[in-house]
Amino acid sequence: DILPNSIIFSEIMHKPTNNAPLPNAEWVEIYNTTESSIDLGGCQLLSSSKSGIIESYILNPKEYVILCSNSAAEKMQNITSHIATVSNMPSLLNDGDMLIINDKNNIQICYVEYSNDWYSGEPENAGGWSLERRDVKSNINDGRNWGTSCSINQGTPGEVNCLQGLVSDTIIPCITGVNVKDSRVLELFFNKEMNTQNCTIDNIALSEPGDEIASCSWISPKNTTLEITLKGELDDNRETTIEITDFICANDIPMNDTIIRVGLPHNPNYMDIVINEIMPYVSEGQSKFIELYNNTPHFISTNNLKLCNLKGEEISNYKSLPANLIIPYGYALISNNLEEINCILGINESCVYLKTTLPSFAGKSGNIAITDDKGNIIDALSYSEKWHHGIINDNHNVSLERISTMGNTNDSLNWHSASSLYNYQSGGWQNSHHRENNAVEETSDKYFWLDSKTFTPNNDGVNDLMILKYSLPETGYIATITLYTRDGYEVGVLAENILLNQTGEWLWQGNNPSGGLIEAGIYILNINAYNLNGKKINTKIIFVKG
């Protein structure tokens, strides 16, 4: 038997051209990682659409060999003698594909899902260059361990790769989400390939009495999805928890013991899921993201949710979300590249991480909406870079956070730049400027008061916002808020004729009416409120801007 990863993919020529030093022929190179010879005869090379059989070849220890068709072998024989031909050789797609090698018994030995993104520079200019594996001793099988060949021949078929380097795996394995396929079948998603021989049903337990697992199996070729079948059915009126212990990844890094909450999902209504944080403006090499928040006590599946652009009533650029389960009052972080986002604050077990292409997401202003599969809008946001804190001079890699999950999505006062203490983003975690819903206390001696009379809008996450709380004797009050210096000089009107709820909060970031931040000093808020019944309230509050 050929053990898993005793053979690995080490080089891929999937975009050959006539204008390159190497012949115009497709091939893949594999490497024997063991100290023993391996008979490749009868093994299969599979792509997403086709499979071929490797003809007889003995691959010696630590040796490379290219796999190609008989016609390609004729072109390559003057370049290398290390050639194993493949009958019915799969074609190699230019834009990327999944390649797998199975043994004679159809058991997987290795795989690679190559991508144009692995090339340095512009992928469209990569024709004639091979992709090389940097470290054949590393099981890392993504862009960290692959790159453009640096050989003057633009590839090294059958030889030690020109591209060399140690690639260490430091990522701790974790669960990135759950999908409830039906009332008995669950899928657990992991952030990396797992050791399937050590991660078995013996390491999984259900917490609720009477809940038992009938079977579990890993989904090849990536082994990043574990399917669990329950003996009984999930109940709509309760949740269960899955406890996982002693799991390890393919590189033998242990996973922390993990408890996961699972329940039957509900269909979301308007504002049940809200856009909670956005990163639309990033530097080169960084990734944009959108964070969603579940506003309900129910589990909600992303399976039927879509992100899109919404301008007026025109919906465009639908992007379906991968199937996953957002727990009650939990988060979903969505990006086309999650690796560097995940490592900022670590993985949050209350968040699911969804890798997918985002709709149009401009840096300075734009619009994003969430809809269900019938096109009903769940939440919609039209944002602007002007919503950032006045102290932020460069908006690159600074996210905009929602302050109240129940507040108006398109109220600029309900958004704030992420705190510098959070590295200017809190993707997957509670926002740095989060305010609890209905965070207003009753008071008997006044109608308006400040959460804190010291106000320091320096974006450090502490007293960055002025929070004017109010509790009025009845509904229907309209207020105008004017700012004065302690000497009575009018700085300007901060809010004019705004309709207030009976209880609530008014938030201010420290901007004067002309747009800049007010200077440090002592100030007075003058609040004039009235209703249509002729009742009036006038309040003056002193505060310090630090």
Please write out the topology.
Elements: E1 7-13, E2 27-32, E3 38-39, E4 44-46, E5 51-54, E6 58-59, E7 64-68, H1 70-76, E8 83-87, E9 96-102, E10 108-115, E11 131-133, E12 146-148, E13 175-180, E14 185-190, E15 204-206, E16 213-219, E17 225-230, E18 240-244, E19 258-262, E20 273-279, E21 289-294, E22 300-301, E23 306-311, E24 314-320, E25 325-326, E26 331-335, H2 339-345, E27 351-355, E28 365-371, E29 377-384, E30 400-402, E31 415-417, E32 448-450, E33 454-455, E34 466-471, E35 478-485, E36 490-499, E37 503-508, E38 521-530, E39 536-545
Parallel strand pairs: 7-8, 26-27, 33-39
Antiparallel strand pairs: 1-2, 1-11, 2-7, 3-6, 4-5, 4-9, 5-8, 9-10, 11-12, 13-14, 14-17, 15-18, 16-17, 18-19, 20-21, 20-30, 21-26, 22-25, 23-24, 23-28, 28-29, 30-31, 32-34, 34-37, 35-36, 35-38, 38-39
Briefly characterize the structure.
The protein has 546 residues and is mostly beta strands. Helix content is 3%, strand content 38%.
Describe the model.
The chain has two helices and 39 strands. The protein is elongated and about 95 Å long. The protein starts with 6 loop residues before the first strand and ends with a strand.
